[in-house]
Amino acid sequence: MIIFYTTLLAFMIFGIPGLIDYIAEKSGQPSKFRIFKAIVFNFPDIWQNITFVASTRYFIKVILGIIVIIIITNEFSFLTIRSNIINGLNRRDFLFAKIELIVLLTIFSTLIIFLSGLYLGFAHSTSKTISDVFGKMIFILGYFIEVFTFLLFCLLLGILIKKTGITFIVLFVYFIIEPILDYKLNDSITPYLPLKAMNHIIQTPNTSLIKIKSDGFNFDFQEAVSIADVGICLGYAALFIFLSYVILKKRDL
Amino acid sequence: METVLSIKNLNKKYGKIHAVKNLSFNVEKGNVFGILGPNGSGKTTTLSIILDVINAKSGSYSWFGQYPSKESRKKIGAILEHPIFYPYLTAVKNLEIIADIKGIKYNDIERVLHTVELHDRRNSKFKTFSYGMKQRLAIAAALIGKPEVLIFDEPTNGLDPKGIAEIRELIINIAAKGITIILASHLLDEVQKTCSHVTVLKKGEKLFAGKVNDVLNISDTIEISSNNIDMLKLAVKEYDKVTDIKKELDLLVVNLKEGTTTFDLNNFLVNKGIILSHLTVRKKSLEQQFLGLLTENE
């Protein structure tokens, strides 16, 4: 599963330049797309572009979520959580072991994104100055926090529901419900919806391309990760851990 | 005697069902302690509570005289119901996880695999094992790190006669080393053959507790017969140490008061001028005791 994720991610990241080349040749206007390519992979914007692609709501971030859900629900369906407790873990140790795993998965995923970004940037970027390379690297940290919180959300669902299949269904149904809630609810509440809060850390990138195209429009695009977004997200992370702990503590295994 | 496990007024409810009712007992060091009861009598629930897998509604328990903690659980080897392992990992990997949790070095794994004769299959995945092998791996897991207490919940469940015999022998061997064993079973024969002490549970309540030998020795029944069975019956009725007389074909089945032996009865009858043609002590097996206990409390 992890290998699948890595391959898919690598394929996407490294496939994009190829895809752009392919479209460019087919379109008969290769020069326009060459410009697009150079812009997308330009330092420092590449950090936002690449983390956005890797973390969009229904995208491959979900694969990591599936991994976490399988790992946690397997503990319940194989009853191995029971034997782990019997053998001398307490419930807190058990939860922390799973959180540790999530941290590792997140680091792993972040590292792939980071290395891919470096590689693609150096391969395609027009500007390679140090300040540009490190310019928007804060998005990598944003990506880490977003994925970490999302995986904690999956962990909580898994602990709550215990059954692998049903957890998936609930997760995907929630993917549909939250945008509906988002639409129905007052705008003052919606930024606090968990998935929205996570996704808000890295918003649709303002590539220079869009800037060119939308000349004259004054879109308010995101330039840096906002502290408030990170705060909401970390708040959720803490809440998910706390709820997971309470459920585990109270439950008969 | 050092108390290994002490349970006080334990209660557990599943909805309306009172799975464990005010249960108290002590297990002393070196005991082979049997928890006997029919299915659904609360054996596994009780063991789950003392292993912190299930939260009790009320009551308390202590291990080694201390408040239960993960450290106390590390000194216990336990099998609860079915063998539980990660199916996609090998036997050795599964045991390594347990060794890691208990903080034991990996070289103990070789020893326990030899003990249960699974060493040849150590690198096979758990899901490829037969039920007997899974059960033996569970015993291996319980033996890791030479625990002070072993808990077996229906250890011979689902095994063939050879497997049952092997596991009983293993339990007896372990007990001989002075390790405390708590054994839950619905098989009386198993408890009778392996345990030194027994607690009988029914619907979560303790019916009886004591040494297995004590249970076996209370009020044996005696079969007697003579050439004139009716005269014999009249004579026996006069004997004041008799508690119960039943006629079975050409036999009389007699229960005597505690402390009265067949010698006393025979002596009495000879004095009455009756010569017995048949006299045997029918040892009441634990099974009959057990069924008797269950019906008495109906």
Describe the protein:
- The complex is a heterodimer of chains A (253) and B (298).
- With 253 residues, chain A is mostly helical.
- Chain A has one domain (2-250).
- Chain A has twelve helices and no strands.
- The radius of gyration of chain A is 20 Å and the shape is elongated.
- Chain B is α/β, with parallel strands linked by helices and 298 residues long.
- Chain B has two domains: 3-216, Rossmann fold (3-Layer(aba) Sandwich); 221-282, Alpha-Beta Plaits.
- In chain B, 36% of the residues lie in helices and 29% in strands.
- Chain B has eleven helices and 13 strands.
- Chain B has helices spanning 43-50, 70-74, 91-102, 107-115, 131-143, 161-176, 188-194, 212-217, 229-238, 262-271, 286-296; strands spanning 3-14, 17-28, 32-36, 58-63, 76-79, 149-153, 180-185, 197-202, 205-211, 221-225, 242-248, 251-256, 278-282.
- In chain B, the strands form three sheets. Chain B has a six-stranded mixed sheet, with helices on both faces. A four-stranded antiparallel sheet of chain B has the order 11-12-10-13, with helices on one face.
- In chain B, strand 6 (149-153), helix 6 (161-176) and strand 7 (180-185) form a beta-alpha-beta unit.
- The mean pLDDT of chain B is 85.
- Classes of the chains: A mainly alpha (253), B alpha/beta (298).
- Chains A and B meet through helix 5 of A and helix 2 and helix 3 of B.
Short characterization:
The complex is a heterodimer of chains A (253) and B (298). With 253 residues, chain A is mostly helical.
Q: Can you tell me the number of structural domains of chain A? A: 1
Biggest sheet record of chain B: 6 strands, mixed
Mean pLDDT of chain B: 85
Number of domains in the coordinates of chain B? 2
Separation, N- and C-terminal Cα atoms of chain B = 35 Å
Query: What's the alpha carbon Rg of chain B, rounded to whole Å?
Result: 24 Å
What oligomeric state do these chains adopt? heterodimer
